[in-house]
Amino acid sequence: MNRLQFIAAAWVDGRRLRFEPVLQQPRLRVIFTGSEPEALGSVIELDTTGPGLRVSAPLHVEWAVEHYEVIVDQAVWVWGEITGERDG
Predict the structure, then answer these.
(1) Residue closest to 58 by CA, chosen among 39, 79, 77
(2) Torsion of CA 77, 43, 3, 9, to 10 degrees
(3) Are 21 and 42 a contacting pair, CB within 8 Å?
(4) Which sign, positive or negative, has the C-alpha torsion 5, 23, 54, 84?
(5) Most exposed: 18, 46, 52, 58, by fewest CB within 10 Å?
(6) Distances from the Cα of 14 to the Cα of 32, 47, 48, 74, angstroms
(7) What would the DSSP string read from start to end of 2-65?
(8) What is the pLDDT of residue 34?
(9) pLDDT at 19
(10) Which of 62, 44, 40 is nearest to 53 (CA)?
(11) What local confidence, expressed as pLDDT, does residue 2 receive?
(12) Backbone angles phi, psi at 86, to 5 degrees
């Protein structure tokens, strides 16, 4: 199985997140990097004015809620780079 190469990574509160596109969907998977990468969830509806984070890792819900805006903002920036629709 071929995995897509990641598009971008960002540090959020001392944790490195990787953003991976999902084919033919306005969505980026969000993965904690490290020796054993772990999915945090996805930022969805990136083609709208109201994207949102959907957390799939129950143990990380509180952390994700605390850093929701930063994670979504980073995903929106990455999506803009991918689609060429980034402002500024």
Answers:
(1) 39
(2) 40
(3) no
(4) positive
(5) 58
(6) 11, 28, 29, 15
(7) PPPPP-EEEEETTEEEEEEE-TTSS-EEEEE-SSS-EEEEEEE-TTSS--EEEE--GGGHHHHH
(8) 85
(9) 95
(10) 44
(11) 44
(12) -85, 135
